[in-house]
């Protein structure tokens, strides 16, 4: 069985990763979503085990000590991390999984899974990014400013990624990512096919010599 695709979706806070990811999962119901662990407080409406596994800082540090996380990072004063076992099990079962994570974590995942597909979501402009964070109404003014300054640093790390997608319209961004996933599947299938074609004459020659 082929392993599943590991898709990493990053981008600055407020660009619309969560929104686009939800739309993408509607379009590709077989795509598995990796629920992260975090030490931040739940926002209104967020549910434990659905949006995040909400942990205290001590519980999170214990997960780090037990090597239960594939990657983790500290972002604007809180811990965030990807539970390892679920990702490894999903890929081994041949299913595709998407991680919605910030840039430091994505770079760590790339070191471990260079064959993953790394997508960076960009805002149409910085002004629109600010409007989206403010419009969501979940952050204090200080956190908005902090998240925006981190956003600039994050966008400077765009070159680590395989693809950049502008989230102008949710539907278009979602379609572009869906096309990337389809193309990556084709690439892998073609690679196997070409490898097989390359190996065939060699194997035939070896058999003739025997
Ligand atoms: N294409 C879009 N056009 C207009 N508004 C959008 C678009 N995509 C997302 N939004 C809005 O922007 C706000 C931020 O979106 P979302 O919470 O999905 O961002 P995020 O990147 O997941 O943020 P964070 O990293 O902080 O969790 C939300 O209010 C969402 O409705
Ligand atoms: N490195 C990781 N980053 C993660 C993970 N889960 C989410 N995130 C990113 O953190 C910021 C802030 O998220 P918010 O929910 O507080 O707005 C955002 O960029 C998320 O994508 C993770 O497991 N690892």
TrEMBL record:
Domain Guanylate kinase-like: 4-182
GO molecular function: ATP binding; GMP kinase activity
One Pfam family cited in the UniProt record for this chain: Guanylate_kin
Catalytic activity, as annotated: GMP + ATP = GDP + ADP
GO-annotated cellular components: cytosol
Subcellular location: Cytoplasm
Cross-referenced PROSITE patterns: GUANYLATE_KINASE_1, GUANYLATE_KINASE_2
Top-level EC class: transferase
InterPro entries: GK/Ca_channel_bsu, Guanylate_kin-like_dom, Guanylate_kinase, Guanylate_kinase_CS, P-loop_NTPase
Enzyme Commission identifier(s): 2.7.4.8
Binding site for ATP: 11-18
Keywords: ATP-binding, Cytoplasm, Kinase, Nucleotide-binding, Transferase
PANTHER family membership: GUANYLATE KINASE, GUANYLATE KINASE-RELATED
Described function: Essential for recycling GMP and indirectly, cGMP.
Assigned protein family: Belongs to the guanylate kinase family.
NCBIfam families, A to Z: guanyl_kin (TIGR03263)
Protein name: Guanylate kinase
Organism lineage: Bacteria, Bacillati, Bacillota, Bacilli, Bacillales
């Amino acid at each position: 069985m082929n392993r599943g695709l590991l898709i990493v979706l990053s981008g600055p806070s407020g660009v619309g990763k969560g929104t686009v990811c939800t739309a993408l999962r509607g379009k590709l119901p077989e795509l598995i979503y990796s629920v992260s662990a975090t030490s931040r407080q739940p926002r209104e409406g967020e549910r434990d085990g659905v949006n995040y596994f909400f942990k205290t800082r001590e519980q999170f540090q214990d997960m780090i000590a037990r090597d239960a996380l594939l990657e983790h990072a500290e972002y604007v004063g809180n811990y965030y991390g990807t539970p390892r076992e679920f990702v490894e099990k999903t890929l081994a079962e041949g299913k595709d999984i998407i991680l919605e994570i910030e840039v430091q974590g994505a770079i760590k995942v790339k070191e471990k899974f260079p064959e993953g597909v790394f997508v960076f979501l960009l805002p149409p402009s910085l002004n629109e990014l600010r409007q989206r964070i403010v419009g969501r109404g979940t952050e204090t003014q200080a956190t908005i400013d902090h998240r925006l300054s981190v956003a600039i640093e994050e966008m400077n790390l765009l070159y680590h990624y395989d693809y950049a997608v502008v989230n102008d319209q949710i539907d278009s961004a979602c379609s572009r990512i869906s096309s990337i996933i389809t193309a990556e599947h084709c690439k892998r299938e073609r690679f196997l096919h070409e490898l097989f074609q390359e190996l065939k004459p060699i194997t035939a020659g070896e058999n003739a010599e025997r």
